[in-house]
Amino acid sequence: MTTEEDIKKRLMAQRMQEHMAVQQGEMMQAALQHQQMEEALKIIRVQMLEPKARERLANLRTVKPELATNLEIYLAQLYQSGQLKSRITDEQLVMILKKLTEARDFKIKRK
User: Distance between alpha carbon 82 and the CA centroid of its chain, in Å?
Assistant: First the structure.
């Protein structure tokens, strides 16, 4: 004979399993989306960067991975909006990097 306490425990375990399954599904979906984004960025890198610029980006990824990711996203946006008409050279990439890393000077004036 099952008691009320046993029923509560089984229901709690079932809910916990369902919750874990949902979380696992969400994690798998997020991983798939991340992988698809990486594939798209890789294709865009090959299409829009000259070899030396690609090499510079790879070196940047080693030293500053966050900046490299921001740069790739920026380049992907330019590419998708049609603003890039030709492949980016190493010199152009350096100029873009300088613009992205420029320190903004903010002056706070107090009254």
Answer: 21
